[in-house]
Amino acid sequence: xxxxxxxxxxxxxxxxxxxxxxxxxxxxxxxxxxxxxxxxxxxxxxxxxxxxxxxxxxxxxxxxxxxxxxxxxxxxxxxxxxxxxxxxxxxxxxxxxxxxxxxxxxxxxxxxxxxxxxxxxxxxxxxxxxxxxxxxxxxxxxxxxxxxxxxxxxxxxxxxxxxxxxxxxxxxxxxxxxxxxxxxxxxxxxxxxxxxxxxxxxxxxxxxxxxxxxxxxxxxxxxxxxxxxxxxxxxxxxxxx
Length: 241
Description:
- The protein has 241 residues and is of the alpha+beta class.
- It has one domain (4-116, 147-240): 2-Layer Sandwich (Alpha-Beta Plaits).
- It is 23% helix and 19% strand.
- It is built from 8 helices and 9 strands.
- It has helices at residues 18-27, 65-68, 95-99, 130-138, 169-172, 179-183, 200-207, 231-240, and strands at 4-9, 36-45, 48-57, 75-77, 83-85, 106-107, 162-163, 189-193, 223-226.
- Strands 8-1-9 form a 3-stranded mixed beta sheet.
- The longest helix has 10 residues, at 18-27.
- The chain is globular, with a radius of gyration of 20 Å.
């Protein structure tokens, strides 16, 4: 049985944010919502300052608290290990957000992309509205929209539901990699089948001593981290950001 996991090499990650930008483009994410994000910590005093970056996303836990706490089964597990969400079943109760120990589930409080729908001019009689300006450039829709997201999920999730990373399941179904993996300029992300001993993720997890976030909770995350420039930081993170 296929079990997809992601391995993130912290020695390769430079905190550039390409994964977050790529994810937003691929999944048509609105303002304030990040399926792919990062924790940035600053150490030292100027001019001797260093930064530590820890990329974050849905951990697609084997024992996912968001799934067990969802009253409508909108949050559910696929056979390949991916944790999915069905907006059609979501009632907006946000139990999944409350139960998730990683803070990687977001709620759509308002209609997505409000700026691009704003019909009011900034200065009455002096400027046009954001909606008109967008229509001049990109037609009647949003300035950028990826229709491929519609293959397994609503292209833009509506107001009143939660959303999160899906490992780009619509791409994985086609034999492609999650877009954050493709877009990483440092090749810090590796995605594959943990059950395949010949896969790159299996090789990396066998070669290095990996850690996962908040392992003590028993959630069994599918996102693994390997290596670090700072051994002390590596040891501290094992217990759990």
